[in-house]
Amino acid sequence: MSTVRSLPKRIPVLARLLGARRAVEVGTFTGYSAIAIARGLAADGGLLCCEANAEWAYQQAENANHWTRCLPGRSRELGLQVGSHLDRRAPGTVMRKDGHMMARTVAKVGIAFLVWTLGYAGPATAGPTDTPFPTFSDGRPAVSVYIAAGVIKNNNLETDFVCTNLDTVAIDIGLEVFDETGALRNSVAVGSGAFLNVGVGKTVTVGTAATAVLHEDQTLALNTAGSGVSLLRNGSGRVVATSKNIACNAIVADKLHTVQDPAVSSLPPPSLAQLQLIKLP
Question: Which of 148, 178, 179, 161 is nearest to 10 (CA)?
């Protein structure tokens, strides 16, 4: 019933990567995670919260007044369904953010929301969460291990991913990048961004381009999908592998400059920033 403190930062990122407009939260408790989900939805989207416990549901309803303050100028709708479909003695109730109560049976609400969601469904093959997993050139299927928002290849900034094999056997590791349209811009299946048979404990680095300050074992060649330009202005990434037992880090770096000895140089060090990776279960 509690929410990990880091999740309110991660949930909106995942929602945006999905391009979500509609969402259902089963078990809303006091509404803390509902606000996090809402932050990631499209401006004209909606969230339906389902809660069987009336006491928690009405606490969430009181907290719903915080909705408009958290999301000013947005047109998102918040629905609250109270009760269980197993309880035939009393129908469920839906509460909207303006406080009006509307009696609805749980079945009617569920069917209506399903139709509503399907009617607004977006494309199913875009971005790091919806694009099918690749198969490496050695025939081994990949699983998704990490996703990242904010992959940059623009204005002399490049993004490097550094991964170490923590498994007890050699594995394949790959990086896929997506542009602002959600288009996949490289193919692990043909070897772009792919490392085969990475040994136990071995570390590999793949970058969007070569940098002066870091070492890259491989750099990506972007295809012409999506925006068609050889840039990633608002990109995202997905680390895939044949095993979940890897550890990765990502760094955005100034590709032109190196670290100089301050005793003999007045040049500033290159810009480096860590890019947060989200580990997938």
Answer: 148
CB 260 within 8 A of CB 190: no
Instruction: Give every CB contact of residue 133 below 8 A, 6+ residues apart in sequence.
Output: 141, 142, 143, 144, 240
Q: CA-to-CA distance for 210 and 197, rounded, in angstroms?
A: 23
Contact present, 225 and 232 (Cβ < 8 Å): no
pLDDT tens digits, 180-236: 999 999 999 999 999 999 999 999 999 999 999 899 999 999 999 999 999 998 899
The lowest-confidence range among 233-237, 252-256, 267-271 is 267-271
Cβ neighbours for 269, distance < 8 A, ≥ 6 positions apart: 257, 259, 260
Place of tokens 């623009």: 154
Q: Exposure of 193 by Cβ count < 10 A (0-12 exposed, 13-18 middle, 19+ buried)?
A: buried
Q: Cα–Cα distance between 127 and 18 in angstroms, integer?
A: 7
Report field, pTM of the whole predicted structure over 0.70: no
Cβ-based burial of 154 (10 A; exposed 0-12, middle 13-18, buried ≥19): middle
Residues paired with residue 252 on neighbouring β-strands, in sequence order: 159, 273
Look up residue 28 and give its amino acid. T
Check if the beta carbon of residue 156 is closer than 8 Å to that of residue 241: no
Separation CA 60–CA 75 (nearest Å)? 19
Ordered domains of the chain (ranges, CATH)? 7-119 (3.40.50.150), 127-279 (no CATH)
CA angle 8, 9, 13 (to 5 degrees): 110
